[in-house]
Amino acid sequence: MQRRSWLRNMGGAGLAVAGEFLQRRATARDPVSSPQPPASRLPGFGRAKTVLVVIASGGQSQLETWDPRPDAPAQIRGEFAPIQTPVPGTIICEHLPRLARLADRYAIIKSMSHEDLDHGSALYLSLTGQYHARLSSNPPPKETDLPFYGSVLEWKRPATNFLRSSVLINGPALVPFEPGPGQYAGLLGRQFDSLMIGDVTTDQPAIPGMEQLEELNFSRQARRRQLLKRLQSAKSLASQPVGDMETLYQQAYGMLDRPAARRVLELDAEPASIRDRYGRHRAGQACLLARRLVQAEVPLVTVIWNHSNRGQDRSPEDLEQHGWDTHNDIFEVMRTSLLPRFDQSFSALLEDLEVRGLLETTLVIGMGEFGRAPLVALERNFAGETPGRKHWAAAYSIVLAGAGVRGGATIGTTDRHAAYPTSTKYGPWDVTATIFHALGIDPADHYFDNANRPYPISIGQPITALF
Predict the structure, then answer these.
(1) Rounded to whole angstroms, how far apart are CA atoms 329 and 383?
(2) Beta bridge pairs of residue 401
């Protein structure tokens, strides 16, 4: 790349990061006159055995979910009406009736905000807590990327009870048809990738190839491992790809050696009524598997609720392909597929965790990479025949529950069009800080790459107002 091109690409990201840094520095407390207490003394520290993150990929509209504006003009409020919840003053979209009844179980943060306006780099921001070097772009994953928060946990706190510390379900997240950045270990190396599980609604095992073959007894398998080890130790084969393959082999053998861990992934063990309650679709069954992993005490579980952020462009009739990137046809797609399915699976997850006594020790987060514009309009450059909403990162909403979160709370406010925060802003960096904080890890601590260079676990601050 030419120097001029590099500077042009870096400029936007650099200004955004600098702006966030200066803003955070301006609002930070003076460390001498009012020093920050130790992380362990802040509310919510160590309250979670597990953090479960549900990613609504594509940009979930705040106006059609958690922050409706019924008094705004029609071109802003949209077609849907709000519905009352048991929490006085809290309304959400009429197409989320199950979640409306559970409003006293979760908190809504309405003042999420950042500067990135495209899916790939905004997904990266959401999954790493830091801006990509190419702001508002769709870059491919690279080995030099900052690591996924799950990979940082793999480095910081290796698995004990289960095979891995972090599991990512229904992945990889496609943007819209190729894997987006931020969901891999990046500069930490492949050995710290989260365990990634794809579509769990097929007839195949959650992780293909993990069946124990009858003809492969213990002694024969042991001889195969020894042969493989001798081959991989040969100097002529010493290389990064071989090292990556060895890592994958060791992880696979770890699963074969632990049948109990494999059984956690078997959804057929669940009663039909439970599977029906979550919904017999990819997102619903992914959420059900997430609950099983919580039961197995996996510390960090991430569900990519919809694997493609805008699969409806290619397959409008296949509801499994629909994503939250609703530039056009927003009301049709949300009414017929996105909102009913999300209402079903996310509410089932919260209720199931609560009934089993797991919500008290599980921090549940539901979020997207940004929101949608407070203006309904038809975009000619996108598929669809009726209006939708553009990308919008200036204000959007997320929800959190469990592990000491104040159910029924609303944190942050937005203006009369749900366009801009009118209170303290929070960013994805604060969400990653909250994840580690809830797990009892100081987000101000560091991890190190293969060259022993330090990186902060998070540049954000835990959202202690939640607890």
Answers:
(1) 9
(2) 106, 364
**Per-residue pLDDT tens for 388-444?**
999 999 999 999 999 999 999 999 999 999 999 999 999 999 999 999 999 999 999
CB 359 within 8 A of CB 105: yes
Q: Decide: helix, strand or coil at residue 16.
A: helix
Give the pairing of strands 300-304 and 50-55.
Answer: parallel
The reported pLDDT for the residue numbered 180 is 98
SS3 465: helix
Q: Give the containing element (helix H, strand E) for 229.
A: helix 218-232
Residue 147: CB partners within 8 Å, gap ≥ 6?
Answer: 128, 155, 184, 185, 186, 187, 188, 192, 447
Instruction: Give the start-to-end residue ranges of the domains of the chain.
Output: 37-206+273-466, 208-264
Instruction: Enter the tokens of residue 60.
Output: 């979930």
| Both tokens assigned to 436 | 């580690």
Residue 40: what pLDDT?
A: 85
pLDDT at residue 166 tops 90 = yes
Tell me the fold of 37-206+273-466.
Answer: Alkaline Phosphatase, subunit A (3.40.720)
What digits encode the pLDDT tens for the residues 81-119? Answer: 999 999 999 999 999 999 999 999 999 999 999 999 999
How far is 215 from 212, CA to CA, in rounded Å?
Answer: 9
First to last CA, the chain: 47
For the chain, how big is the Rg over CA atoms in Å? 22
Q: Which residues pair with 169 in a beta bridge?
A: 197, 303
Helix H segments across 70-148? 74-77, 97-101, 119-128
The span from the CA of 179 to the CA of 173, in Å, is: 6
Is the Cβ–Cβ distance between 69 and 414 less than 8 Å? Answer: no
Q: Which among 214, 211, 249 is positioned nearest to 229, based on CA atoms?
A: 249
Q: Supply the pTM of this predicted model.
A: 0.86
Query: 167 forms bridges with which residues in the sheet?
Result: 195, 301
Measure the CA–CA gap between 185 and 447, rounded to whole angstroms.
12
Residue appearing with tokens 């409008």: 316
Q: For the chain, how many helices (H) and strands (E)? A: 13, 14
Token pair for 408: 């029924």
Report the alpha-carbon distance of residue 119 to residue 25 in Å, rounded.
27
Taking CA atoms, 466 is separated from 247, 275, 325, in Å, by 39, 31, 28
Question: And the tokens for 325?
Answer: 């990137």
Looking at residue 15, the DSSP 8-state letter turns out to be H
Q: State the helix-helix crossing angle for 119-128 and 428-438, rounded to 10 degrees.
A: 30
How many Å apart are CA 85 and CA 94, to the nearest integer?
10
